Sequence to fold (471 residues):
Amino acid sequence: MLQAHRGPRRAARVAALAAIAAAAITVPTLASAHGRPDPSVAARHAIDGGHARNVIMFLGDGMGDSEITIARNYTQGAAGRLAMDSLPLTGEYTTYAVQQDDPTKPNYVTDSAASGTGWATGHKTYNNAISVTPDGSDVPTILELAQNAGYKTGDVTTAELTDATPAVLASHVPFRACQGPADMATCPLDTKQVGGPGSIAEQEVDHNVDVLLGGGKARFDQTVTGGPFAGLTVTAQAQAQGYTLVTDASSLAATTPKQKVLGLFTPGNMDLEWTGPLAQAFPAGTTPTACTASNPARPTTQPHLADMTRKAITLLDAKARHDRGGKAKHGKGFFLQVEGASIDKQDHASNPCGQIGETAAFDAAIAEGLAYAKKHPDTLVVVTADHGHTSQIVEYPQTDTHHSTGAIATLLTHDNAPMVVSYATNLVGQSQDHTGTEVRIAAQGPQAARVLGVTDQTDLFRTFKAALGLH
Ligand code: CO
Ligand code: CO
Fold:
């Protein structure tokens, strides 16, 4: 009987495949998948064991392989490529945290704080920890080590500057919630009034990072509770310590390398780049819809991530060059972290267009970094994520008994084809969860080959140290 069925079914499959192949020929973007250059040539040229003058790290929050593929399908087509896809050396890294009560055991699903502590310090820690180990010790960060060695430093994000990823580089607190001086309920031993280092906002300013750009002005407008700046806001403290405060794109553009820059462009997270339908429970969400590649609610005075990245690179490069002519150590450039933060936040919100718009804006920022690295090949560029997230590309729902149990949205992509995106790590309408998958890490420049194979997020700290010649 099986034998009898095989013939017609096989014939039907062949016919279906032929139809797909015929359709593919008519779509130029799919045809372009053929004839790409042999990557082994680029890989051989890319293996460089020397020292880097500069490191630029791009961190897509929650940007797992699904999030990259969704953004690629939508903006470039399935056979297209993003700027981040052009880095020649690619590996995967594991992201797990450890349990706070028993650090010998993994917590398979990390948050941005524990994952960030991992790549920023080389130490595994518990979820919520900002560059402290499970026993409560502060551990040095790559930004601190680079700064002590004479490199210029920058920290850029689309989230609040006190959010986990920017925080892990320039502060140490046991709980990520301790963002401003009024947010210290869970960090009573760290407040300035008891002689502690203060909140994340205070520590970032006290750390003297050369360029700080992002959202979160409301945290910096809270009042310092102790020490020489008690009674001032953190923003006023920063100005007293020599920072130039900028709050819109034009004043950012006007800053010069002589200035230390604190850019706070909105009270909370920066506004989204794109809008579109939220994912919904089946049978809703099945009509193919395009995203709106803009957001009318986003103030035009707010810089885009690519603008902030380009300006940060220009300022840091010039600051380092200026120092080279003077007293500073020869040949040392800068360490810059750039975070695309709201990929994660819109994944939590089951908002595929928001998520894609943030991934596209992050990719545009990466293109700025790659353009700089093309002229300055002594730059290590790393593109990675801190953890996986919810969104998955799934089949178009066929029947009442064959569809995602989560929220779905069907997007009409660059290929003019429907792409169904499913959010199903929590109940429909609730905040979706991170996942414990390994994620992509891609690199180019000195020491980039260290990302090859399967590594762990803590290995990235050692890659940075090797590239910058730190011990
Ligand atoms: Co994260
Ligand atoms: Co998240």
Q: What stands out?
A: The pocket of cobalt (II) ion (ligand 1) is lined by residues 61-62, 112, 344, 386-387 (CB under 6 Å). DSSP finds 15 helices and 16 strands in the chain.
